[in-house]
Write a structure and sequence with these properties.
Structural class: mainly alpha
Number of helices: 3
Bound molecules: zinc ion
Strand content: under 5%
Order of helices and strands: HHH
Radius of gyration: 21 Å
Number of domains: 1
């Protein structure tokens, strides 16, 4: 029996967490989303989808600073109360951990927002005139 699905050429979307962690293009699912560690490419090298049309803004950075900051601060306070290490241990442990956590989670969060914008066809809001339906 031949496969007569008209959408057979469209690849199935991987789960959001997998797609964002691997930096997959939301259109063709190739790992072309990032040019550097946290900077988007201008366009997909495989399918040509322009990533410049999406605007994830500073939302992920501000949100992650609060989350990572709270987690690292809580861990540092617990360590200080339980173990009383010298100050240099805190510096040696928490500064690199914070940098790695922020960069790693920023990459995933930016990719997740861009992929969600694409999947949900999110666009700038427009004002509708009363009585006019689109
Ligand atoms: Zn692509």
């Amino acid at each position: 029996m031949p496969d007569d699905h008209p959408s057979a050429e469209a690849p199935a979307n991987p789960p959001l967490l997998i797609a964002s962690a691997r930096g997959l293009c939301p259109q063709c699912n190739q790992p072309t989303l990032f040019a550097t560690t946290v900077r988007f490419s201008g366009a997909c090298r495989a399918c040509g989808l322009s990533f410049a049309q999406f605007n994830v803004g500073d939302g992920p950075a501000a949100f992650l600073i609060l989350i990572v900051g709270a987690i690292v601060t809580a861990m540092a306070v617990v360590m200080e109360v339980k173990l009383h290490p010298p100050f240099w241990v805190h510096m040696l442990l928490w500064i690199p951990l914070t940098i790695v956590a922020v960069i790693g989670s920023l990459r995933v969060a930016k990719a997740a927002l861009l992929i969600l914008e694409y999947r949900n066809k999110a666009r700038e809001g427009t004002l509708a005139r009363p009585g006019v339906t689109s």
